[in-house]
Amino acid sequence: MTKNGNKRAVVVFVLLIGLCVSAFFANILIGNVRISLDEVLRILIAGGGDVKSRNIIASIRLPRSVMTFVLGGALAVSGFLLQTYFANPIAGPYILGISSGAKMAVAMSLIFITSGTGFTSNLMLVMTAFVGAMAATGFIILISKRVRNMAALLAAGIMIGYICSAVTDFLVTFAEDSDIVNLHSWSQGSFSGASMSAAWFSAVIVAIVLVAVMLMSKVLDAFRLGEVYAASVGINVKLCRVLLIVLSSVLSACVTAFVGPVSFIGIAVPFLMREVLKSSKPIILIPASFLSGAVFCMISDLLARMLFAPTEINISAVTSLFGAPIVIFMIIKRGKTG
């Protein structure tokens, strides 16, 4: 990178870290029940404060803030990996139907396994979502081998998403009333009901995947220049493609398993970071996408909670409101340059 590019990256990362900290504490501070900053700090640092405030912070707001930070970042990195794989900035887990495949699989497990046996676990949800995400991704890859036109491939991904969503709707329609209550808000995308155990579980999975993705940054840098170039410098292209899909699917599955499908973060955030940083280098874009995805998700969740409080809207309504215009701008810009 040039000297100006390095300065730009430093400024952007400082701003992103500042925004992450601010958005995180805003999510803990702001709610239907007013709790002062002093009391929040006492609760977080020393475990003090009155019982009611401590329960609200420790059991509701803190787990939710951790989940929005971790999973928002995970979704953005998942989108970045898919965009690298398909060499298209409009590719993303929501658009390609991968999130819908994961949603369908989790809905099936909740209705047929959990309701029948009463058994559920964080690992089961993530593994089930991963299977659904991989199934949807497998169809996309099969179609990509026959269809070279990226617009047609994206349209096929959208259709797969519709099919998976239709199957999920059928399952919800004929499910028991007790299952529908749990499935309804989740199927729309919501961080409501986040627990600390789920937050730490997802944080561990995302951290492991992020380390793996960062270790692949040099490989991704070569891969984005084309498969021919990557092969010419000794990279195993087939293995790289498999790793890209698996890592992206794990991140997307982790998000869908715990909060349901969340739209547009996986597409809009990596594009914004490319525009802001004026760089396509994975070593910079991966952490930048994670931090900005976390900020985007935390702010969106805060708005979802507070815009019509005490009624909470699903987070995808907010992310779509801000993310869709960015994608439209991206398509127009791509059309002019292409």
Automatic annotation (TrEMBL):
Pfam families: FecCD. Belongs to the binding-protein-dependent transport system permease family. FecCD subfamily. This is Iron complex transport system permease protein. SUPFAM superfamilies: ABC transporter involved in vitamin B12 uptake, BtuC. The chain crosses the membrane at residues 9-30, 62-82, 94-113, 119-143, 150-174, 194-216, 250-272, 284-307, 313-332. InterPro entries: ABC_BtuC-like, ABC_transptr_permease_BtuC. One of its GO terms (cellular component) is plasma membrane. GO terms for biological process: siderophore-iron import into cell. It is a multi-pass membrane protein. Its main location: membrane. It is found in: Cell membrane. The lineage of its organism: Bacteria, Bacillati, Bacillota, Clostridia, Lachnospirales. The keyword Cytoplasm does not apply. Keywords: Cell membrane, Membrane, Transmembrane, Transmembrane helix, Transport. It comes from Butyrivibrio hungatei.
